[in-house]
Amino acid sequence: MLGPVLLAASRSAAIRRIVSAAPVTRPMVDRFVAGERLAESLGAVRSLTARGLDVTLDHLGEDVTDRSEALRSRDAYLALTEALAAEGLAGRAEMSVKLSAFGQALPGGHDLALANVTPVVEAAAAAGTTVTLDMEDHTTVDSTLAILGELRTRFPQTGAVLQSYLFRTEDDCRALAGEGSRVRLVKGAYNEPASVAHQDKREVDRAYVRCLKILMAGDGYPMIGSHDPRMVAIAQDLAHRLGRKLDEYEFQMLYGIRVAEQERLVAEGHRMRVYVPYGTDWYGYFMRRLAERPANLTFFLRSLVGRR
């Protein structure tokens, strides 16, 4: 399986240098990443919202190795919040954050991440938008959900991501299906061991449906993070059967993937939110997109070999 290999490559400095230097890389990256600078990401937001799409913005930055980098991540999001407010975009654009970028993996990382993300959530609320906590590998789940709990005492609109391939996720869905909660359900993109996660795609899909049923039957606000046509159709059927109105859930897809489907859902009256990453630290994100879609990987490798 190439997926785990690519996920490992996303953390390799040597492979990063090779990929970054390849002429074919930039056009491929531009498909999935809205730009390296804040101004470019705002341009993408304006374009998407003009077409009826909502947005969640992710300033790319993981594997933080010291506290100064964590502070730079915090400041990048504070600048983003200020820009969204100034541009009048806060009503259509929220923010997604990875707590690893706020220092979660450093010594004392739980408290450090909470301290760094809190002013971002405060600023988002003041600007009229909100924050969703992205979920990373299974070792971070307890810390991330604990930070979510702390934040929701003051900012109940703070959202979280749950990954259906983890065995624990059905229980987490039940715990987070209450009134006011916002949960983005995804299948999961990290290379997790068989001791904690389903390894078979069909089992991951079945778990996704079970989790989706829990969230849709609950009192919270489900966010269906999937490009899978079957999952989209199942979500629509569940919403209809459970009497959910169109503003009581939403679909979410990645920037540059299944664009026609995104626009189809909007045309049908659904809320469709596009996950828009930006920033200079695009490499890890880009490699995960290749790992998820063999067609993208095949095209990239053929182009890379052809250029050489």
UniProtKB/TrEMBL annotation:
<dbReference type="InterPro" id="IPR029041">
    <property type="entry name" value="FAD-linked_oxidoreductase-like"/>
</dbReference>
<keyword id="KW-0642">Proline metabolism</keyword>
<keyword id="KW-0547">Nucleotide-binding</keyword>
<keyword id="KW-0285">Flavoprotein</keyword>
<dbReference type="GO" id="GO:0000166">
    <property type="term" value="F:nucleotide binding"/>
</dbReference>
<keyword id="KW-0560">Oxidoreductase</keyword>
<dbReference type="GO" id="GO:0010133">
    <property type="term" value="P:L-proline catabolic process to L-glutamate"/>
</dbReference>
<feature type="binding site">
    <location>
        <begin position="226"/>
        <end position="227"/>
    </location>
    <ligand>
        <name>FAD</name>
    </ligand>
</feature>
<keyword id="KW-0274">FAD</keyword>
<feature type="binding site">
    <location>
        <position position="289"/>
    </location>
    <ligand>
        <name>substrate</name>
    </ligand>
</feature>
<feature type="binding site">
    <location>
        <position position="98"/>
    </location>
    <ligand>
        <name>substrate</name>
    </ligand>
</feature>
<dbReference type="Pfam" id="PF01619">
    <property type="entry name" value="Pro_dh"/>
</dbReference>
<comment type="pathway">
    <text>Amino-acid degradation; L-proline degradation into L-glutamate; L-glutamate from L-proline: step 1/2.</text>
</comment>
<feature type="domain" description="Proline dehydrogenase">
    <location>
        <begin position="44"/>
        <end position="299"/>
    </location>
</feature>
<feature type="binding site">
    <location>
        <position position="201"/>
    </location>
    <ligand>
        <name>FAD</name>
    </ligand>
</feature>
<feature type="binding site">
    <location>
        <position position="163"/>
    </location>
    <ligand>
        <name>FAD</name>
    </ligand>
</feature>
<feature type="binding site">
    <location>
        <position position="288"/>
    </location>
    <ligand>
        <name>substrate</name>
    </ligand>
</feature>
<dbReference type="InterPro" id="IPR015659">
    <property type="entry name" value="Proline_oxidase"/>
</dbReference>
<feature type="binding site">
    <location>
        <position position="135"/>
    </location>
    <ligand>
        <name>FAD</name>
    </ligand>
</feature>
<dbReference type="InterPro" id="IPR002872">
    <property type="entry name" value="Proline_DH_dom"/>
</dbReference>
<dbReference type="GO" id="GO:0004657">
    <property type="term" value="F:proline dehydrogenase activity"/>
</dbReference>
<protein>
    <recommendedName>
        <fullName>proline dehydrogenase</fullName>
        <ecNumber>1.5.5.2</ecNumber>
    </recommendedName>
</protein>
<dbReference type="InterPro" id="IPR008219">
    <property type="entry name" value="PRODH_bac_arc"/>
</dbReference>
<feature type="binding site">
    <location>
        <begin position="187"/>
        <end position="189"/>
    </location>
    <ligand>
        <name>FAD</name>
    </ligand>
</feature>
